[in-house]
Amino acid sequence: MANALTSAANGAPKGAPGGTLPRRAFAIIFWSSVATAIGNNGLISVLPLIGRSLAIPDEMVVAIFSLSAVLWACSSPFWAKASDRYGRKPMMMVGLSGFLVSMVLCGGVVSAGLRQMAAPMMIFVFLLLGRSLFGLFGAASNPAYQAYIADHTPRAERTQSMAMLAGAIGIGTLVGPWLAPYFIYPVVGLAGPLFTFAAIAAAMLVVVWRFLPESRGRTETPEEEAEDEAELTLEKQRPLWRDPRIMPFALYGFVVATCQTAQQQTLGFLVIDKLGVSPMAAKEQIATAMAFGALAGLLAQWGIIRMFQMTPKQLLRWGVVCGAAGNLLVAIAPDYHTVVAGYALASMGFGFARPGFTAGSSLAVGWKDQARVAGAIAAVNGINAVFAPAFMALYRANHSAPFYLNMVLMLGLLVYAFVSKALRNADPAAVTREEATMATIERSDEGGA
């Protein structure tokens, strides 16, 4: 197993975070995040099939994520603080365990529904509760992932690190919907993908438990210690949601995540309706559309960002430009192929925007506040799903309306990215000379070791 992990580390994206972060540790965090993303996006791709096969209304299908999203948003700050107190690794294990249990329970409920062991409304309620376990406990892992990497990555390299971690979600978005149809087994049917995703999470849970070292953090300079003391005083005076260093990124991230969730969760229904076929007949086309979107996101995160060394400030602007254009293309799409093209363009935009606000918020605070900020970003990434039923109701009224609304929201964020002082200054070039020197020393020490 150790050899396998070493190979996985060597196969991780080139240019994995430097500083004091071991390559194998990054590989474990990366593939753990991939495992969760595979399951979540695979579930999104099969939920339209499940809902329409079980005669559950479309709005209620997307509402399955809503309670989970509220619990995710409420619990993320708690888990972020817990990672400071108990360590990053235990919280990763809590998150993976929550995802595992949730998938097993939801798979059992879907199996019962397919066998008509309960009424559709009863199946919906149990699916809602099963998914809520992920929101309550699964939220523990994301802040721990981000804080672990921030513990070991110099600020000058933080954007690249966060982009690669975001790329794990891109892989999950690509692989999950593509694999999900192949996991529809003869006996368990549409519940097969859920059980399979649970097994993948179980494997990664064992890997994290056995092979991931606990984060020992980073030795601070006197300047950073003084900075942290100032931040602690500021935190006592002002709660996180009123912190001007963080709020602009949280607001930007909330709107971006809302638009992306709305597009993802309406895509499957749009493909079914655009093709005019049965849900099961459209499963491959849904997977293909999501795969093209994921490829575009990965191109942004692993290709364009790295090639042009894009800063958070640039990502925040280009992300919403591409997102608005992609949503407009989907809104006016006359056929399936145009829908796929628009979804891919929008996904590229989200591939820019997510590392932009994640890295920008991380750069805005000191080392001791990383878990706290990670919790805030995880919360805004989760709570947005509460609005999914509203977007679904809008879709039923007019199939183009949710995408026009997304376009308007994205253009509003473009203006905000130029107006907000915090977003305008989201640039690693603002790092002090002392921080840049420390980053160089860290890399030299690692090379000497």
Q: What this model shows, in words?
A:
Helix 6 (141-152) runs antiparallel to helix 7 (158-179). The chain is mostly helical. 78% of the residues lie in helices and 0% in strands. The chain is built from 18 helices and no strands. It has helices at 2-10, 23-53, 58-86, 88-114, 120-137, 141-152, 158-179, 192-211, 222-237, 247-275, 283-307, 312-331, 336-363, 370-383, 388-397, 401-419, 421-424, 433-448.
Describe the structure concisely for a colleague.
The protein is built from 18 helices and no strands. With 449 residues, the chain is mostly helical.
Write the topology of this structure.
Layout: H1 2-10, H2 23-53, H3 58-86, H4 88-114, H5 120-137, H6 141-152, H7 158-179, H8 192-211, H9 222-237, H10 247-275, H11 283-307, H12 312-331, H13 336-363, H14 370-383, H15 388-397, H16 401-419, H17 421-424, H18 433-448
Helix pairs in contact: 1-2, 2-3, 2-4, 2-6, 2-7, 2-8, 2-10, 3-4, 3-5, 3-6, 3-14, 3-15, 4-5, 4-6, 4-8, 6-7, 6-14, 7-11, 7-13, 10-11, 10-13, 10-14, 10-15, 10-16, 11-13, 12-13, 12-16
Q: Strand-residue fraction?
A: under 5%
Q: Between the first and last Cα atoms, what is the distance in angstroms? A: 25 Å
Question: In one word, what is the shape?
Answer: globular
Radius of gyration: 21 Å
Spans of 5+ residues with little confidence (pLDDT < 50)? Answer: 1-18, 431-449
Helix content: over 70%
Number of strands: 0
Order of helices and strands: HHHHHHHHHHHHHHHHHH
- Biggest sheet, open or closed, and with what strands and sense? none
How many individual helices? 18
Give the mean pLDDT. 81
**Overall SS class:** mainly alpha
